[in-house]
Protein: Acetylcholine receptor subunit alpha-type acr-16
Amino acid sequence: MVYTKEGKICVCLTLLTLIPLSSAWNSSDVQAIRKNGVLSSNYDRLVRPSKITNVSVALNLLTINYMSWEDYRLAWDVTKYPDITDVFADESEVWRPVFFIDNSVSDLNIISDSQLLYRITHTGEVEWEQPRMFTTHCRIDITYYPFDTQLCQIKLTSWGYSTDEIELHPTFSGIITEDLEPNGEWLLLQTSAKKNELIELGANGVITKHWEIVFTIVTQRRTSYYVTGILLPVFLLSYLNTLVFILPVESGEKIGFILTVLLSLAVLLTIITDKIPSTSIEVSILCKAHTLNYRV
Structure:
């Protein structure tokens, strides 16, 4: 809109026409990439990409487990398909490393999921994020319960591929905890991820080496509940237990008083026993002290 000297108004109208760009994303390009890659007759998913394949592994406490590796056979020319950054494939179409949890107590199967898709970038990098919960064996030390610190490990081991065939290494120095919500009973102190070499001696005397990544989680018990609900009653009853010696014999309340304290200690010991994990490797100092009260 423009004002002229004569006071007239000139209105200029410009029409813009939207023309689709020739380089926009389209499904035909994705189909062509998949046809020349994972669906190609020259691609065999049972053959690993290279002599030694580097595999990166990351663990999330919320069970989003990340793995990635390079498969040059799945790369494509980015100049030919500039708007296609990645394509997807399932586990029946691409090669993947085989892993299992070595110290699992509920599931010793190979880690896999036919419902999850693999993301493949133009460089041939394959990314696999698999949500899964692991139940592993952890040795519990309750010596200083409830002021105890526990260490638990998740051991991810390669299966079928030796150290000469794949190079396994953790993506991060610890476990991803950015999505971890506070827990009312446990406080997370630290995590770590370390690569170990496993040596296996076969029946024919042949030594085979496999890679293993050990994810370590160190937690500390929150003590507020246990101090107010267990320790203070124990100390109070222990103090009351000694008062029986100052009661005069003439009162006739010695037996009644000590029986009341004894029954209270028995009930409290039952509560403590239900709270403490069942193990005979280490015995809690609290249980030992509580048992001594009966002797007194």
In short: The helical segments are 27-36, 224-242, 254-275, 285-295. Residues 230 and 255 are 25 Å apart (CA to CA). The chain is about 20% helix and 25% strand. The chain has two domains: 27-221, 224-295.
